[in-house]
Amino acid sequence: MGHPGTALRGWGGWTLLVWVAAVSLIPGDGRRARQPRCPVGCTCTKDNALCENVRSVPHTFPSDVVSLSFVKSGFNEITGGSFVHTPALQLLLFTANSFDLIDEDAFLGLPHLEYLFIENNKIASISPYAFRSLKALIHLSLAYNNLETLPKDVFKGMDALTKVDLRGNNLVCDCKLKWLVEWMHHTNATLDQIYCSGPASQQGKRINDLLPHSFDCITAEFASYQSLKFESISVETFTFGIDQYVVFAQPFAGTCSFLEWDHVEMTFRTHDTIESTSTVVCKPMVINNHLFVIVAQLFGGSHIYKRDTSANKFIKIQDIDILKIRKPNDIETFVIDGESFFVIADSSKAGSTTVYKWNGNGFYSHQSLHPWYRDTDVEYLEISNKPHLILSSSSQRPVVYQWNRGQKQFDRRTDIPDMEDVFSVKHFRVEGDLFICLTRFIGDSKVMRWDGAMFKDVQTFPSRGSMVFQPVSIGNWQYAILGSDYSLTQVYQWDTKRSQFVPSQELNIQAPRAFSLVSIDDRVFLLASSFKGKTQIYEHLMIDLSN
């Protein structure tokens, strides 16, 4: 037999082991560990908790709770990380609550959540990352809330979804919701029928039936790009050789300033200048690969320069008859039957608006249109494939001249009725129809359309110190820019459905006098001359409203 002490020592060892194990299960304060109690305001069963009229989301629940419901709660939002202390949840329900916002990462730390019902609440806004990390979720209901839109890609990463319920909201089917239509066409989840509450063109339509291409979400704007530290009264763009250039007439500095595009710095830089006096127009004209510039001056006569490519400078080749052109205000260049012309509008009492023709060696006076009328602008255009000029004058209504091919001169055709005090006329075309923009300094500027016999009113625009109403076309975009000496410059965009211009943008330009476009490196720039401030350059940018 063994020694009794040996048996006692063995028995005592087992006693010590059991005692140590028991002690390890007792909390440090000597009390037995207990499960978290059901929070105040909540009712808990074996695996479910229902909270009613609580003021905030409780942080502790019994560990065996896998479904949690909130009814008539008093909190205003579901904040980020509200449920990190209940990672075992598989179902979460909110109904008849007063909160209106779901914050970023509101459901963080719920890796097992499969059902999320947020119904009959007042939700108007959801963070784009509200449902981030809910990779196991298979059923999501946001039914009967106040949602008008949903942030783009709010369901991103929720690949397990099989059911989404958005019924009972006021979803506006505009570009902000285009992503949802695209998502619906690619997801495996099913959605109940939901309807558009707006805009008017989509109201009442089933969102499930919409197609991504039914949304017109591309718009554009002119964004400030570069400011030039000089005043200017006119701007022209032209191509010579393979390069594009810009030339500004600077009346106070007395120069024609030529700019070119710097492909490295991505800005416009000085290229060359022509020194002059009280310069009002610097009009480039390319004939047989030779560059000519007609420089119109208020004092000292007007001149014609030619670019000497070998010497890389401009050389004056001709003076313009000072008896005919005393106070030039505008110049237009054009080609008829292969022959090159330009016309100068003269605004003096004793001058005469005159057409000049290139004869191979120089320009000579071809036709004086009319004296004594103080013409402020001349516009060349084709009406029914026939060359025409429209002269604007401070002393009569705009006069339309038509080219007589037999006489090779312009004959007066008609005037534009009820349009006194028009400072300038510019034309544009939309889908083959001919329109003109007529500028008035004070009063109403107008857009008119050629109906086959006469120009008829289309639209009026209030003018407050307007010296320019310039149409510009960029791809499928048609704009009209109405300058103002007393207010902001208004940019209007052509609405093809309404067949008229609608407000698009406002530009802050001091005393604008001319606008022109230039396209370089697949970019389009709007050049704006300013008579009393810095000359401005804007870039035309496309904007996707669905992003």
Description:
This protein is mostly beta strands and 547 residues long. Helices cover 5% and strands 48% of the residues. It is built from two helices and 39 strands. The strands form nine sheets. The protein has an eight-stranded mixed sheet with strand order 1-2-3-5-7-9-10-11, with no helix packed on it. Strand 14 (243-250) and strand 15 form a beta hairpin. The longest helix is centred in the N-terminal third of the chain and has 21 residues, at 4-24. It is elongated, with a radius of gyration of 38 Å. The N and C termini lie far apart (90 Å). Mean pLDDT is 91; it is low at 1-31.
What share of residues are in beta strands?
over 45%
Category from helices, strands and their pairing = mainly beta
Strand runs, count: 39
Mean of the pLDDT scores? 91
Helical run tally: 2
Shape: elongated
Q: How are the strands ordered across the major sheet?
A: 1-2-3-5-7-9-10-11
Amino-to-carboxy terminus distance: 90 Å
The biggest beta sheet is recorded as: 8 strands, mixed
Residue share in helix: under 10%
Name the poorly predicted regions: 1-31
What is the gyration radius calculated from CA atoms? 38 Å
Protein name: Leucine-rich glioma-inactivated protein 1
Main location: cytoplasm
Organism: Channa striata (Snakehead murrel)
Domain LRRCT: 169-218
